[in-house]
């Protein structure tokens, strides 16, 4: 399924969006000479590459066949966080009794209005990614059309040939569904279509307990859908620590989400207006009925139509093959973002684009493997992580000391009524060097940056301990980790020596 070129519904907000990111009357420029950089794909990686290179004086061409802004603007970060925020508002209003706010379950949300708000905000943000801004303000030659390689140093688009010194493949990836019998015939939603809804599905089945599935399952349950989350693994968010996932699972159950974990999906069929998912567990079979199915697993690289072979560019099932400097098998061509990265995040695409500019245009030697990449699942509470997990360290033969501070010991979390969660850090055994960290908290994504900074700059946990954190904040949990390490260093022997010193001082 491709992102619709004219997103539904066809209202004024989506008309503004399309006018910005795929102007219907756009006239492509005539290529002028040889470009320093030709960028194929105007998602995050492509936009940052084009804007950054142009800002440094390069002659840049940017090609987009679909919607500028890519997944992030159109069907990813921007619409999803607007929807999540609306669902959080109704949840807070309904659960405000403990704070003395009356109303409770009698409150309702206008789903259509919440989605209209999302479309309005997305349309406003879209100006930053617009074709006109890149042309008029940034000096980039913007081509709307299908770009394909015509040779090792040439790209074709709209009947024009663009010669380049360097090129960047930034075409990203798209939603893909698992090969479940009957799924295509029954019909399903992905992140590329769910944000076009104007009516709330009374029953929603979500296939996949990863970040997309969990975020949307909780949001739609809070809107009022009866949500069933189907996951083949034994717990949701399988990449995260089991106890972190367990906190979120308990929240999901409390909020009425039906979790079907450790199951096999044998098929999907329709029964009247119902979509029926057939499941197997421990030899038994049962079915889940829904009005809509959201598939939240699987991504496929956008390599079709690029004719990479004409430029000598290797690709595989994961996308374009690059080395650590993001260079493809054609030394003139680089790639960045979801088309080549296992870390399919907007912020990773942005960071890789900056590496691409340095290496492609200025003979840099920057390495993608040197990046410290945090991530966050925007459920409530959020789960954010950076660096190694304990299991990663164990697989690499690295001994670690793990410290955990529960939010129930943090004053601000108690006052906020948000004590479900923790801050955790993994240190190289016997040192304060930070190897990884996980935070489970309502605003964990806002808090993980402190650990990202420490890992990137080589600051140890003791540096965080010496940093004054405002009181009361939930970020104090991070400082408390440093206190916990200091307490662990106070061995009986050390305590005996210090006690002896203080006794001597009293003489």
The figure for the number of domains is: 3
Strand fraction band?
Answer: 15-25%
The N- and C-terminal alpha carbons lie at a distance of 81 Å
By CATH, the architecture of the largest domain is named: 3-Layer(bba) Sandwich
Biggest sheet, open or closed, and with what strands and sense?
Answer: 7 strands, mixed
Radius of gyration: 25 Å
Uncertain regions spanning at least 5 consecutive residues: none
Derived from helix and strand composition plus strand pairing, the structural class reads: alpha/beta
Assign a percent range to the helix content.
25-40%
Total helical segments: 17
Quaternary structure of the protein: single chain
Q: Mean pLDDT, as a whole number?
A: 96
Report on the architecture of this protein:
The protein has 507 residues and is of the alpha/beta class. The chain folds into three domains: 12-175 and 300-370, FAD/NAD(P)-binding domain, CATH 3.50.50; 183-297, 3-Layer(bba) Sandwich (FAD/NAD(P)-binding domain); 381-492, Enolase-like, domain 1 (2-Layer Sandwich). Helices cover 34% and strands 24% of the residues. The chain has 17 helices and 23 strands. It has helices spanning 12-21, 44-55, 70-75, 77-94, 111-125, 131-137, 183-186, 211-223, 242-254, 346-362, 390-395, 411-416, 444-447, 449-457, 461-465, 476-489, 492-505; strands spanning 34-40, 60-64, 141-144, 147-151, 154-157, 160-169, 173-175, 203-207, 226-231, 258-261, 264-271, 274-281, 284-290, 292-295, 299-301, 315-316, 319-320, 333-335, 375-377, 382-387, 400-406, 422-428, 434-441. Strands 1, 2, 3, 4, 5, 6 and 18 form a seven-stranded mixed beta sheet that branches. It has a five-stranded antiparallel beta sheet with strand order 19-20-23-22-21, with helices on both faces. A four-stranded parallel beta sheet has the order 10-9-8-14, covered by helices on one side. A hairpin with a 4-residue loop joins strand 19 (375-377) and strand 20. The longest helix has 18 residues, at 77-94. The radius of gyration is 25 Å and the shape is globular. The model has no long low-confidence stretch (mean pLDDT 96).
């Amino acid at each position: 399924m491709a992102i619709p070129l004219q997103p539904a519904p066809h209202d004024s907000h989506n008309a503004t969006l399309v006018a910005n990111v795929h102007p219907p009357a756009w006239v492509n420029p005539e290529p002028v000479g040889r470009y320093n950089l030709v960028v194929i794909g105007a998602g995050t990686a492509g936009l940052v590459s084009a804007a950054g290179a142009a800002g440094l004086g390069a002659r840049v061409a940017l090609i987009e066949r679909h919607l500028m802004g890519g997944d992030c603007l159109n069907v990813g970060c921007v619409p999803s966080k607007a929807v999540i925020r609306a669902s959080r508002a109704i949840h807070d209003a309904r659960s405000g009794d403990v704070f003395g706010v009356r109303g409770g379950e009698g409150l309702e949300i206008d789903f259509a209005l919440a989605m209209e708000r999302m479309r309005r905000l997305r349309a406003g943000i879209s100006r930053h990614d617009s074709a006109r801004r890149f042309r008029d303000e940034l000096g980039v030659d913007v081509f709307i059309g299908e770009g394909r390689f015509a040779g090792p140093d040439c790209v074709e688009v709209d009947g024009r040939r663009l010669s380049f010194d360097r090129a960047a493949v930034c075409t990203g990836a798209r939603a893909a569904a698992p090969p479940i019998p009957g799924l295509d015939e029954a019909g399903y939603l992905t992140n590329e279509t769910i944000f076009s809804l104007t009516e709330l599905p009374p029953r929603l089945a979500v296939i996949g307990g990863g970040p997309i599935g969990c975020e949307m399952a909780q949001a739609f349950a809070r809107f009022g859908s009866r949500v069933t989350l189907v996951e083949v693994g034994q717990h949701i968010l399988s990449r995260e620590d089991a106890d972190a996932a367990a906190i979120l699972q308990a929240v999901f159950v409390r909020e009425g989400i039906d979790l079907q974990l450790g199951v096999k999906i044998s098929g999907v069929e329709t029964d009247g207006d119902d979509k029926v998912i057939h499941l197997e567990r421990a030899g038994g079979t049962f079915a889940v009925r829904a009005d809509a199915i959201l598939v939240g697993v699987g991504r496929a690289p956008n390599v079709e139509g690029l004719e990479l072979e004409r430029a000598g560019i290797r690709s595989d099932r994961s996308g374009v093959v690059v080395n650590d400097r993001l260079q493809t098998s054609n030394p003139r061509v680089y790639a960045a973002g979801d088309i080549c990265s296992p870390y399919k995040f907007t912020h990773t695409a942005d960071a890789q684009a900056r590496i691409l500019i340095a290496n492609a245009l200025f003979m840099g030697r920057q390495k993608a493997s040197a990046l410290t990449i945090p991530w966050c699942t925007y459920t409530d509470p959020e789960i954010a992580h950076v660096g190694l997990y304990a299991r990663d360290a164990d697989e690499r033969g690295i001994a670690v000391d793990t410290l955990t501070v529960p939010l129930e010991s943090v004053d601000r979390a108690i006052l906020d009524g948000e004590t479900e969660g923790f801050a955790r850090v993994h240190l190289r055994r016997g040192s304060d060097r930070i190897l990884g960290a996980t935070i489970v908290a309502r605003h964990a994504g806002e808090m993980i940056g402190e650990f990202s900074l420490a890992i990137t700059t080589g600051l140890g946990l003791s540096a965080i301990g010496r940093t004054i954190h405002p009181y009361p904040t939930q970020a104090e949990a991070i400082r408390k980790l440093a206190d916990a390490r200091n307490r662990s260093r106070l061995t009986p022997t050390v305590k005996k020596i210090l006690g002896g010193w203080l006794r001597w001082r009293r003489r």
